[in-house]
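pasting for ref
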Amino acid sequence: MEHASHTFARLRPRLQGIAYRMLGSVAEAEEVVQDTWLRWHEAGHVADDDGDPTGWLVTVATRLSINRLRAAKVQREHYPGIWLPEPQLTDSPASPEQMLERADDVSVAFLMLLERLTPEARAAFLLREVFDVDYDELASTIGKSEAACRQLVHRAKAQLRDERPRPPVPPDTHLRLLTRFAQASVNGDFAALKELLAEDAQLMGDGGGKVQSFPQPLFGGQRIAQLFFATALRYPHEVRFETVRINGEWGLLRYVGGALESAQTFQTDGERITLIQVQRNPDKLARMVRDS
């Protein structure tokens, strides 16, 4: 039993990573991992011929995630306003190169893009393109032929190709832009805010029906600058920002009156901010409140 627990603990980050990228929810991903452990325990800690249980565990976690995502897609059709993934604070990577690599496959923008795929296509794409699973293993995991899996991955790549988030800029450049944006927001410097935002910038907010947010994306750098300027006017000396790594890239936590009000992730072209995704749903911020 001790050996099994040690083995599962070693594989947990991989299973958690698959489930989170599938579901966009830390809590649901943890439930998938727990269910995987229970099924492995009930099955007698099965393993492949070489004694490695990785394949079995990945298969169970993936299929559980597919089933959960099918149900979640129905629920998200009735979600109040815009649905955004639950953000998570991430540890500091060893190098800027690792930070770029991590942000490319777990950023909030990328998880949003994956929402366009069917559950099976999402699983096939992630296992192949992110976790580098061979097609024979992928076929066994998904329960389809290798040819069918190749077709799933091919179609998913084609579907995402034109709209996949642009490659992230160097982390230091991204951080400098966010730092300037946070300072301008706190100071209520409308001119600086407008200068930092692309003319066609977009803002998406998730309030989950619990707090006020925009039901549709907000377009235009000037309108977005006005929104942040208005917050500074409404809460003078009460707004502060904390720079943190969210989903592998630099983001901002905004506090109002000492309480965490939102987690904000950004896309930039290296010179201007092109997209802001603002998570305000208290249920999706609860874990960050505990961890921050």
